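Help wanted!
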Amino acid sequence: MAPSKNKEKPKRLIAFLEDQKTTDAIKEGLRETSIENSEVFQGGVKEAIEFFSHNRSPQYLIIDISKSDLPISDLSKLSEVCEPGVSVLAIGVRNDVGLYRDLMKLGIMEYLVKPLFAEIISRALKSMIFGDEGDKTSKTKLGKIITVQGARGGVGTSFLTTNLAAILANERFRRVIVVDMDIHFGTVTLYFNLKSNDGLNAALEDPERVDQLFLERLFIAVNERLNVLSSEVPINEIKNYSQNSIEQLLSYLSKLFHYVIVDIPHNFDEAAGFILQRSNVRILITEASLAGLRDSGRIIRYFGEDQLNHRLILVLNKFVKEGKGKLFPEDFENTLKRKVDHLIPYEVSINNELIDAGKTILEVDTPLTRPIQELANNIQGIKNEEKVINSIWNLFKR
Ligand SMILES: Nc1ncnc2c1ncn2[C@@H]1O[C@H](COP(=O)(O)OP(=O)(O)O)[C@@H](O)[C@H]1O
Ligand SMILES: [Mg+2]
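Answered by r_m:
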């Protein structure tokens, strides 16, 4: 394939509209914008939810909320099935400040009140497109970058990565991609019972070639909401990916997925270091051993503690109460001067039952299901005392 620079996907817009007058105004307004590809459907939020449960999202969505009695709750349901990078323009009949404020809180770009004229529409669309290209001023919500890193090898990093991803995608209905940064020995595809391609390496090796279409062909699908990006580079080939290619990859992925979950290899390199620094949530996994304690401490000192929008979650995995030289959560807390956020027990049945069959925690009910669901809650910002409800605020807190 010839290298391509700045080759972007053609801008696509879908509109769900309730009446002919608005449809005419929108069609006319669209002529003055750079959107090449648009489709208008009859309907409102309900029809849009049905449509996007089976179809990919466009960059731009116009949605008529005039027939919706509970527009905020309906739109939050719509956000569940749409990709996070979609810019939404809402249209309705109610002209009240409270509604406007709530719509903005949901991440809707603009709200226009009927009757509409082509001029108003084209102005709103242009500012939406401009906001997107100007990036910094864009209100488009981006997916979160979650890194999962082991203090040592074998502590359960890839096991927890794949299971968290499965919970967020299959139980919480989010769009998720797992990026396996262990390009030589990664086990993510193995744990999902899939065969790896050279996708991740192809995406990082030659950033000039990467655009959204190119990237999407590299994903390995576990199911329609859960994808993997990995590779199996020959073990003697050392790669030094540039910070630029990592940045570019993360920026594309966070527009396509609600969660970009990155499995960081134990012997992390510079590229993994960039991702750790760039992540919204860092999950550090350790085992209850002296070496685990020492290495957790070293990693926390190096990458720093909790920060706003750069949270650190410490997980003690494979925990057993008895055993020689065993450490306890209190030993970690006293030495590291911080909380152990999650304690996950050792479960004998795991190895054979799950891994060999490429099954996740959700498919086989084990004593580990609940603790791993609680970790998923923490990522989503859901308090663990609360019931796991897909309440509207939880959805948008992501
Ligand atoms: N809580 C647990 N109980 C029992 N076995 C576990 C648990 N967590 C992980 N394992 C097992 O430990 C092994 C190593 O896990 P893995 O995720 O591949 O480690 P890492 O990625 O940290 O090197 C796997 O066989 C996995 O099934
Ligand atoms: Mg691993």
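OP: Thanks! One thing I noticed: The pocket of adenosine-5'-diphosphate (ligand 1) is lined by residues 150, 153-159, 187, 317-318, 344, 346-347, 350-351, 355, 368 (CB under 6 Å).
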